[in-house]
Amino acid sequence: MIRTALIAAVSLAALAAPAFAQTALSLNTPANGTLTDRSAKTGEGAPFDLYTLRAKPGERVRIDLASEAFDAYLAAGAQAGATCSADCVTNDDGPDGTNSRVTVTVPASGVLQVRAGALGGDGRGAYTLTAAIVAPLAAPRALTVGQAASGTLGPNSADLDGQRGDLWVVRAPAGTQLIARLNTTAEGLDPLLKRGKFENGGFVAEEQDDDGGPGLNARIRFTMPANGQAVFAASALGTEAAGPYTLLVEPPLPKQPLRVATLGLGEAVNGVLDAKDIQDPETEAWSDYYKVSGRPGQRVRITVNATTPGMNPQLAWGVLDGETHGADYGGASNDDGTGGTINVTLDEDGASVLRVTSIDMGTMRYTLSAVGLPRPAR
């Protein structure tokens, strides 16, 4: 009785599972189709056609979906119908506008399902779907923690889903906290850094960053996975990005204790923002803190000027919440090119303090002064 019930349950589940018509897709042979009101739909109502591609297990296949009629959405994997299997790779906007591109490894079955669809429910019109084998990627080059590596993106770089890139691997004990930085001074080069894994001759991205570092540079803060290695793709936005770069993986700076100096009225002090100061864990900007002397309720004007060329200081006035690196600090702020000025009112309990930081996330020397303001006329 139990076996009969189980068979019945499996049969009902099979009947409940949606069955989609599948069209054979051949390598290097474009398939032309049209999304219509009669096309299959995802749970969100987006139309799609389903294709089957046969190739050797382990081969890397690049699939492109192009349409001038709708915003393309592409999915490929062992199962890629209305829902995807765990190995499914998806893409909305590939390297060419709203067209889509994925690079996927053929599973052990030798059969890939490919979903050629629209991003939204109103997508209708003609499209072209193509598939081609791409060569396995070269094994990642070794990168040592704390030592910067240099590279150059160009025509000889690997093709990473339509973007030029180089692969690097870093090894360190599992659980190690690290920061990866991809920097360049090349004009017009916008670095794109991805972290993931290298398997079956391909790179599988798990996270990425574009402008997390200073300027257009990229940065990823991560924890070393259980296998003790992290693979990075050093690339840049655009299909023909070219130029030199540096890649550095290093531990975060040690946390510094909170120190609050005193700024007297009529006094000018010289300060420096560097690795000895409190650092914001997200922006990595350093900060100095000052208690401004004066009587409660007094109005004070505070001025900062950077003496380091190219740096942009910022002032903020507020109350520290705790004495930790990640203290929650709020208040008014103002910056003006290489200098900034704010007017504040000293509070009764003296809890508010001044923060000096830089929006440029670099070492900065500065001068700081405070003067009392006349009492407002009654």
What features would you describe in this structure?
It is a single chain. This protein has one helix at residues 2-16; strands at residues 22-25, 31-35, 40-41, 47-54, 60-66, 72-77, 89-91, 100-105, 111-118, 125-134, 141-143, 149-153, 158-160, 163-171, 177-183, 191-199, 202-209, 218-223, 229-236, 243-250, 260-263, 268-273, 278-279, 286-292, 299-306, 313-321, 328-329, 332-334, 339-345, 352-358, 364-372. Strand 16 and strand 17 form a beta hairpin. The protein is elongated. The protein is mainly beta and 378 residues long.
Shape: elongated
Structural class: mainly beta
Helix fraction bin: under 10%
Beta-strand share of residues: over 45%
N- to C-terminal distance: 94 Å
- Give the count of helical stretches: 1
Question: Main sheet?
Answer: 7 strands, mixed
Low-confidence stretches: 1-17
Strand runs, count: 31
Roughly how many Å is the radius of gyration? Answer: 28 Å
Mean pLDDT: 86
Annotation keywords:
50% strand, elongated, 378 residues, six-stranded mixed β-sheet, disordered N terminus, 1 helix
Short account of what is shown:
With 378 residues, the chain is mainly β.
What is the secondary structure topology, with strand pairs?
Layout: H1 2-16, E1 22-25, E2 31-35, E3 40-41, E4 47-54, E5 60-66, E6 72-77, E7 89-91, E8 100-105, E9 111-118, E10 125-134, E11 141-143, E12 149-153, E13 158-160, E14 163-171, E15 177-183, E16 191-199, E17 202-209, E18 218-223, E19 229-236, E20 243-250, E21 260-263, E22 268-273, E23 278-279, E24 286-292, E25 299-306, E26 313-321, E27 328-329, E28 332-334, E29 339-345, E30 352-358, E31 364-372
Parallel strand pairs: 1-4, 11-14, 21-24
Antiparallel strand pairs: 2-10, 3-4, 4-9, 5-8, 5-10, 6-7, 6-9, 12-20, 13-14, 14-19, 15-18, 15-20, 16-17, 16-19, 22-31, 23-24, 24-30, 25-29, 25-31, 26-27, 26-28, 26-30
